Every structure is written in structure tokens, then in C-alpha cells.
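Dear colleagues,

As part of the handover before I leave the project, I'm documenting each prediction I ran so the next person doesn't have to rerun anything. This entry is a single chain, and its sequence is reproduced below.
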Amino acid sequence: MMIPLRKLSIPATLLIASFSAHAFDFGFGGGDDSGGGPNFFDIGEIVSGVKDISRTVTGINEEDEIEIGRDAAAVLLGASKPVNNPELQRYVNRVGRWVVNQTDRAHLPWRFAVLRSNAVNAFATPGGNIFITDGLLHLLNSEAELAAVLAHEVAHVVQKHHIKAMSSLNTSGLSGVIKLASLTREGRSNQMTSQLVGQVKDMYLRGLDKDDEFEADSMGTIIASRAGYDPFALMAVLQTLDSIDPENSGLALLYKTHPPASDRLDKLEPVLEQFDEPTEESPKLQKRFNQYVGKHS
């Protein structure tokens, strides 16, 4: 279902203010990430046990959601490791944190990471873990396009799309997913752990519902524009994807788990009609993007 635009209306004054230079000052000069700075991925922390907490099975609370996200992140990190470039990871985290600050779920323990993979893709887990492959990162042309990709994944988390998908795969529905997540890893049997990991892997191999992808495109575009970026940046990313040979092996999983880029562009058009046509002054921040991403090979 598409997001009603009236729920995400953007006052013109907010857009004007967000385009100012100050809006993009992430404090790169200081190098101090304490007190509200980005959280970097610690694989040991993600896969370590957590305290057992009494939970309800009638709905999903944020503790459940975050715990499920830790398991999902551990599965993804088992397949591809983060790129060993702290400067690049810090940059992507700061762009991501600026984007999530435009949502009503900024309080989640958000983490962003670039994964070493030639595949062209990006992933999110419940609770705020966002991954982008360096295969996709190197197809992007600006910070605005990076922000648009991250905002799409952020929208999935905000709307809890992955929880819905996992619930549909579990024979007991949402209650079954929560039950598995609510136990400490020490408290789970090998069979229960395998069941949860299997559901996570299945979810990422199947992908989300196509309407959830369209919704994330719409909502992500608006979130990125609230952050002050060119609202047409996601359109540019989709056009790039649409121009690549579909036989390219790096696109195999993306095409399997997402609607065709051309379909996504068609669905995004009504949202983009709400914005003025892009100009050369539309904030893309190509120079800063090249400064950080260009050093990564």
C-alpha cells in the first residue's frame, strides 16, 4: 500500500531550512563519535547472548524487534563482512544517522555498514541495522543517492516490513517469531536456533512483498528530502539499475527480491510530482561523497 502523502507532508519552510549548508554539517572535523555519534558494527556484540525478558505474544514491542534484528544481522554478517575502512564506515553511519533523525523512530539503536560484496544490494533488519554492499555503493554518484538508498531501507524498518514477512513464514505467525526471539541464545535448543536462522535466510532470499518495496521507495524519498537531499536521487539510482544488463550476476539477488526498476520508477512518479523539477542546485553533495567513497576500492 502506498503511503498517503498527507501523512508525510513537508512544510516548504522545513525544506528550505534543510537545504542550508548547516543541515549537512555532520561534524566530520572533530573525529569524536561519543555522545550520540554513530554505532559501528561489533560482530561479537551482535552474536552474543542477551538477557531474557518477559514479552507478550499479542504484538511486537521494540525489545522483541531489536532482538530479532540482532539475529538477522548475524546471519547477514555471516555471509559478508564489513569493509575494513573505518573512515568510510563512519561516513556512511553519519549520513544514515542524519536520515533517521527525520523519522519518528530515531531512538532505535541504528547501525549502518558497508559490506564487502560484489552483489548490488542493500538490506535492513528489524530494529535498525542497515547494510549496503560496496557493489551498490560504487554505482552511486553522490551523497544524495546514498541517502536515498539508506532512506529506502530505513523506511522498511519504520514500517516493520520484515516483521510482517517473517510472521508470514512462521507457522505460528507473529507469536512464533516473538517466542523464538524472546529466548536467550543459551535458552534455545539447536532446533529452535536453526528454525529462526532458517526463517531469516528464507526472508532475505524471497524478499519482501512488492507493495512494501513500493512503499519504502515512496516513504524513503520523502525521508531523504526532509533531510535536505535532492528528492529525485532515488529516481536516479533506479534509472542506473534499469540501465544495467539484467544478466549481470551482481544483480541476481536484487532482481529476485525486488520489483523491476522500471516498475518502481512508475510507482514513484506520483510522489515525485509533489516536488519541483530538479536543478543544478539540487543538493547532491557529490564532492564529499567522492572524498570518502573514492578512497575505497
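The longest helix spans residues 62-79. The chain has 14 helices and three strands.

All the best with the project,
I.
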